[in-house]
Amino acid sequence: MFVPRDLTACRAPRRRMFALAGVLLWPAGPSLASLAPPEPPASFAPAGPNAASLDPAPWQPVLPEAPEAGWLPVGNVFVLPAPFAPEPANLNPVEQAALPRTTLPYEDPGFFGIGGGVRWGTAAGVNTGEPTSGVLTGRLAYKLGTDFSVSLRPSYIFGNRDLQGNNNDEGEFQMPLTIDLFRKALISPYFGGGIATNTDSTGATNPMLTAGVDINITRNIVLGLNANYIFQNDIGDTDWQGMSLLYLRF
Question: Is residue 105 included in any domain, yes or no?
Answer without folding.
Answer: no
